[in-house]
Design brief:
By secondary structure, the protein is of the alpha+beta class. The chain contains 6 helices and 13 strands.
């Protein structure tokens, strides 16, 4: 036999076994505590009394199974249960402090990594020549050459391999280490290629066209033409003054024509 119960919170109707009459049960819909009513006593009817009209039972919630009365009997009110489950203010403070410390620690780590990985500067002293005669590679990657000298490159901190190629000279190679937020100055040094020297004096560095690169040949030509020999001890890339002399004076067609009247240039 079952007893019909009505939840006072959500008005859900459900059935409970009559043996739990007078006890407490949970509503299967909202979990509110409901007191199971007592089993109604059937009235004794006289033979002459009229039969009570048939009343349809109230509609029951479909698909809702009776509550499990083995875990029923929580005598506390909903407000008491909520108060017990609320978090302590100290726990909220501790959790908030831990979250703030995590954010601060993450920011410190990010700043430290940013500082350690900050790039450095490489200042490369190159000859005053056009980019067509110079090629710069760093870690195997070709670099664009600026017009100004010295050339400045921003590189990540750590070791790098530097390679500079110049027409007519052996490559310049150097292993460098760039520090964080520091500057490294590198001066390139050049020696005439052995291959170029073995070919002979017919190959002349750029800007010295007309110069024989040989005193012996100049003396021979001077004796034949009745001229004197002019020997200039100057290099194509010794220093900035030599480069200026070559560009402004020695490479000038007017200067070459004036010398050619009386001298054989060695």
């Amino acid at each position: 036999m079952y007893v019909r119960c009505i939840c006072s919170q959500c008005q859900t109707r459900f059935r409970v076994d009559a043996k739990y009459a007078g006890r407490r049960a949970k509503c299967p819909q909202c979990q509110a505590i409901v007191t199971v009513p007592a089993v109604p006593v059937a009235p004794t009817l006289d033979s002459g009394s009229a039969m009570a009209p048939h009343v349809s039972p109230p509609a029951e919630v479909s698909g809702v199974s009776p509550p499990s009365l083995d875990i029923v009997t929580d005598d506390r009110s909903p407000s008491a249960r909520v108060r017990r489950r609320s978090m302590s203010p100290w726990a909220i403070v501790i959790i908030g402090s831990l979250g703030l410390l995590t954010v601060v620690a993450g920011g410190v780590v990010w700043l430290a990594l940013s500082y350690l990985n900050a790039p450095g500067t490489l200042v490369l002293d190159l000859p005053d020549e056009s980019a067509a005669n110079l090629k710069v590679e760093i870690d195997g990657a070709a670099q664009g050459l600026p017009e100004s000298r010295p050339a400045v490159f921003r590189l990540s901190a750590g070791p790098h391999e530097l390679l500079v190629r110049r027409r007519g000279y052996p490559p310049f190679r150097k292993s460098i280490v760039i520090g964080t937020r520091t500057r490294l100055d590198v001066v390139t040094t050049w020696e005439m290629s052995e291959i170029l020297g073995a070919v002979g004096a017919d190959i002349v560095p750029r800007g010295y066209e007309g110069w024989l690169q040989s005193v012996e040949r100049s003396v021979e030509q001077a004796q034949v033409s009745g001229k004197h020999v002019l020997v200039a001890f100057v290099g194509s890339d010794w220093h900035r003054e030599s480069q200026e002399l070559r560009r402004r004076v020695l490479a000038s067609p007017e200067f070459a024509a004036t010398l050619g009247e009386r001298y054989v240039t060695a």
